[in-house]
Amino acid sequence: MAGAYYARAAVLLALGCVLATASAQEWLRAHATFYGGADASGTMGGACGYGNLYAQGYGTRTAALSTALFGNGAACGQCYKLVCDRKTDRTWCKPGVSVTVTATNFCPPNWDLPSDRGGWCNPPRPHFDMAQPAWEKIGIYRGGIIPVIYKRVPCVKKGGVRFTINGHDYFNLVLVTNVAGPGSIKAMDVKGSQLGNWMPMARNWGANWHSLTYLNGQGLSFRVTVTDGQTLVFASLVPPSWRFGQSFASNLQFHL
């Protein structure tokens, strides 16, 4: 009996060590700067195509990602938890706080400056250029740049996934916003009510996906797969009377 007890204890201890190691490996190191002003007004728009971040529900908890993280737009909508690394720099880090931001923009390289002297977003450096209000949750303004540890976290959203249709005849550009769970989209398909078959869409830029099929006057359905593998079908979401520039909110959302 004692042997069995100690064997079980050893297994549990080993499992605990594995879980602790896995948890520790979730955190990665990077640096963070800020942009956009104290009200984050300068962060509107951006390389993900979300436009007015206040209207879209992203607010001021956002960040532009360096090349190493942005993935040519594949990271748009992802959420990251950041903590200022006081073990590396106690001067400019606020203690005991964290902030969660959504990737809404791209921080381009600056090849005229070295990566440790102003070229913060140069490859292969992981870097977050955060909206100033978000940055100031964890850093002291005068510091300008801080070391951080970060990890991907699920995105928590209110309401369902939203779709905005732009473009013109034979070019349907669909912006997908308010995506919970992983936040980022892996694949997307569209189906017109008069065609009946799912047609793959391609990432055009950021969170915008396009189709080159004439879909005017048809009801539209979308099938979206996010980067953790979840797939949802938004059946007959868009009525045949839709017009370019309109947005449509669904009642469906991805799991955390």
UniProtKB/TrEMBL annotation:
Causes loosening and extension of plant cell walls by disrupting non-covalent bonding between cellulose microfibrils and matrix glucans. No enzymatic activity has been found. Its main location: secreted. The keyword Magnesium does not apply. SMART domains: DPBB_1. Residues 1-24 form the signal peptide. It is a peripheral membrane protein. InterPro entries: Expan_Lol_pI, Expansin, Expansin/allergen_DPBB_dom, Expansin_CBD, Expansin_CBD_sf, RlpA-like_DPBB, RlpA-like_sf. It comes from the Eukaryota. Residues 45-160 form the Expansin-like EG45 domain. Residues 170-250 form the Expansin-like CBD domain. It is found in: Secreted, Cell wall; Membrane. One of its GO terms (biological process) is plant-type cell wall organization. Belongs to the expansin family. Expansin A subfamily. Keywords: Cell wall, Cell wall biogenesis/degradation, Glycoprotein, Membrane, Secreted, Signal. The lineage of its organism: Eukaryota, Viridiplantae, Streptophyta, Embryophyta, Tracheophyta. It comes from Eragrostis curvula. GO terms for cellular component: extracellular region; membrane. This is Expansin.
